[in-house]
Design goal:
Chain lengths: 582, 188
């Protein structure tokens, strides 16, 4: 059965048929027909953000915390260009999004019309795919395909550019079941040979380690369950990238903590010293590998990934396993069990790991007079443990400390900008998360500089009564920039002060939210509880030590076994060849 | 504090990687890419090459199946084996791409290019140009009293060779299509 309707109505109908309940967006001339349709229905709620970048990040937060596709709607020209940062962020972190942008009418394309931009050209390299729809009859099919592409294989953002005349024109609506089947069908299951080879390697390895990433989260909650079963039954230690936190519980016995540039000593040395590395849904990012030539020199490497272009991109692996993490883990478990649940003796390996753990690499010197950022996060963790909690972050030192000091027991509870490192991500992402989980505690761990990048979203939080907690670890510095300037640039702190900061309590009050300020460690617990218990958005201005550095740290251009553990070890640690790396 | 002896530092990527592996040798490969003939598809493919820093030596594209709207892009590229593998994987995941074939490694293949050469001259040079064109089986497709346009089909090497010979004989303009290529034998 097909139905005639306008393109604008089709957009809303297709969203309903795709099960969408929330759209983040900002209206403008080129999307007015769609907004008119949104106005005339109640199934889909539209969340009016205050800047299009925030619409995309909010949709990312929504998607990441639910496993569903996030949807955003922006107008032509500046609406679309403002969305570019968010799209790139979602592409690098493999977050499924469908973004609709308005466009000038088809007969005006190419004339430099008002609010015209070559959106397809601009967003081509920052989307998984994009479409310019010139014919209303094709619109619904494109939308259904867009959802398919966004969520299939390695997920990612897609964009549909909609000229205004296409929105006004009538066309035939095709429901999802009738839509043309896309040839885009990524391979989900790995071959039995690959699975068996992996199991054989697992059985023989004396020093194995699981190195897991965001792919486990993207594969769905079942993948995390299977991972837990595999880790616990084989007794193999596990570490994870920033993006993969929560797939294996932080309280789990085999958990080594996060790896990488600011990962734990035990995780990085296990990566360096292992004889079998099993990468599951991670991508050998440069924050993880350090110096490529010296990356885990004595290990056999397995790489499980759904994206063939991830295999051998950075690190040549001995056994690529192409498929969806969940499917692969299920098959690995089956084969491993059917072959008699064999493992080599890992006792000496665990003994070694125990010795590394005893270094207690996350220890820091606490203070009775100043709040250390690590202490603030330790207290946040202690006070919110066991709560129905979601955490987002901005980008910088606070992000790394949050990853180090907060423990994640479940997937989809941790939303952070990993690949692109987008300052300004956390606040709008927390809005998206809160909309998806209205009853849950949603905290954005922020730095004051990052937070200011999308602070206009206070308006959104107030308008929709979203009780998001903005915990700003305020060191009045661009902390990570300052840290690098200290270590790499002769302590010349070029433009890394946050000058002329607002009074955050007054700022909160100006928007009609609650503001809390705290600078004394003795008051911290009470202040944090006040934030947690308040039924409404809170800006918490947590004045912390201004010159704290984030450790451990693998300096740029160094291998895993040359970590810096604290300030004492930083003297001359980074050579000029390392300094050119970011 | 080390309970196990773990060797520090190594240049090998893996202790077990025994493959014959030439990391630094740059190879030339001809790729055939079948894509949906939709607006912007060529921009997607070449944008990927420029965005990721890959080389394009030559590029041809045209619709080859009007019923299914499939176009064939033939691209000649250079890179180390690692880079070539990456290029194939990256091109392969572009949504409108149906198939990527590396004709250089998938068995024997035929490569052809078409070129047009404008050669101006009189007297002996003009006669010599015509004589060489016959040897190379180039056709004269345009002629004036002072010029020829030769049309020639062949491998890129043959076309290069002919161009080298024509240069001292008055070659003033060249147009080349870039390589079109097909695997030999029956289609699978």
């Amino acid at each position: 059965m097909t139905r005639q309707m306008t393109g604008a109505k089709m957009v809303v109908q297709a969203l309903k048929d795709q099960g969408v309940d929330t759209v983040f967006g900002y209206p403008g001339g080129a999307v007015l027909p769609i907004y008119d349709e949104i106005f005339q229905q109640n199934d889909i709620q539209h969340i009016l953000v205050r800047h299009e970048q925030a619409a995309i990040h909010a949709a990312e937060g929504y998607a990441r915390s639910t496993g569903k596709v996030g949807v955003a709607l922006v107008t032509s020209g500046p609406g679309a260009t403002n969305a570019v940062t968010g799209l790139t962020d979602a592409l690098l972190d493999s977050i499924p999004l469908v973004v609709f942008s308005g466009q000038v009418p088809t007969f005006m394309i190419g004339t430099d019309g008002f609010q015209e931009a070559d959106t397809i050209g601009i967003t081509r390299p920052c989307t998984k795919h994009n479409w310019l729809v010139k014919d209303t009859d094709e619109l619904s099919g494109v939308i259904h395909q867009a959802f398919h592409v966004a969520r299939s294989g390695r997920p990612g953002p897609v964009l549909i550019d909609l000229p205004k005349d296409v929105q006004f024109a009538d066309g035939e609506y095709t429901p999802p079941a009738k839509a043309k089947v896309s040839h885009y069908q990524p391979k989900m299951k790995a071959s039995i040979e690959e699975i068996t080879d992996l199991v054989k390697l697992m059985e023989k390895a004396e020093r194995p380690v699981f190195y897991t990433g965001g792919g486990v989260i993207n594969s769905g909650p079942a993948a995390s369950q299977l991972l837990r079963e595999l880790v616990d039954s084989t007794g193999i230690p596990i570490t994870s990238t920033l993006m993969g936190l929560g797939a294996y519980p932080a309280s789990g016995e085999n958990w080594l903590g996060m790896l990488g540039m600011h990962g734990t000593y035990e995780a990085n040395l296990a990566m360096h010293g292992c004889d079998l590395m099993i990468n599951i849904g991670a991508r050998f990012d440069d924050r993880i590998t350090g110096r490529i030539q010296d990356f885990s020199p004595h290990s056999k490497k397995v790489h499980v990934d759904i994206d063939p272009s991830s295999i051998n991109k950075i690190i040549r692996v001995d056994l690529p396993v192409l498929g969806d993490v969940g499917h692969v883990l299920e098959d690995v478990l089956k084969v491993w069990k059917s072959r008699g649940r064999k493992t080599a003796d890992h006792a000496a390996w665990w003994e070694q790991i125990k010795a590394w753990r005893e270094v207690r690499c996350l220890s820091y010197t606490n203070s009775e007079t100043v709040i250390k950022p690590q202490y603030a996060l330790e207290r946040l963790e202690a006070l919110t443990k066991g709560m129905d909690r979601y955490v987002t972050t901005e980008v910088g030192q606070h992000q790394m400390w949050a990853a180090q000091f907060l423990g994640f027991e479940d997937p989809n509870r941790w939303m952070t900008s990993g690949g692109l490192g987008t300052m300004g991500y956390g606040f709008p992402a927390s809005i998206g998360v809160q909309l998806a989980h209205p009853e849950s505690l949603v905290i954005n761990v922020a730095g004051e500089a990052s937070w200011l990048m999308n602070m206009q979203e206070m308006g959104t939080a107030i308008q929709y009564r979203l009780p998001v907690k903005q915990l700003i670890l305020n060191n009045e510095r661009l902390g990570m920039v300052r840290q690098w300037q200290q270590l790499l640039h002769g302590e010349r702190y070029s433009s890394s002060w946050s000058e002329a900061l607002p009074d955050f309590v007054k700022l909160a009050e100006a928007f009609g939210a609650k503001g809390i300020i705290c600078s004394d460690p003795k008051d911290l617990d009470d202040a944090l509880m006040e934030m947690i218990k308040h039924d409404g958005p809170v800006i918490f201005d947590c004045l912390v030590e201004k010159h704290e550095n984030c450790f451990p740290m693998i300096p740029s251009g160094k291998p895993h076994n040359e970590m810096l553990l604290g300030d004492a070890s930083t003297e001359g640690a980074i050579k000029s060849d390392g300094a050119v790396l970011v | 504090m080390s309970a196990l002896r773990i060797q520090q530092g190594s240049t090998s990527h893996s202790a077990y990687d025994l493959r014959d592996y030439h990391a630094d040798v740059v190879e030339k490969h001809t790729l055939a890419v079948l894509v949906d003939n939709e607006a912007g598809v060529l921009a997607r493919v070449i944008g990927l090459f420029s965005g990721r820093g890959y080389n394009i030596e030559s590029l041809t594209v045209a619709e080859v199946n009007h019923d299914t709207h499939l176009s064939r892009i033939t691209v000649v590229t250079t890179g180390t084996r690692d880079v070539i593998e990456q290029i194939k994987a990256q091109v392969g995941r572009i949504v409108p791409v149906h198939e990527v074939h590396d004709l250089t490694v998938e068995g024997p293949s035929i490569e052809r290019e078409l070129a047009l050469f404008k050669v101006e001259g009189t007297g002996d040079k003009r006669i010599e140009a015509l004589r060489l064109a016959e040897i190379f089986r180039a056709n004269v497709v345009d002629s004036t009293l002072g010029s020829f346009v030769f049309e020639m089909t062949g491998t890129s090497e043959k076309i290069d060779a002919f161009a080298d010979l024509m240069r001292p004989l008055g070659l003033v303009e060249t147009a080349r299509t870039g390589v079109a290529a097909l695997a030999r034998g029956q289609a699978e």
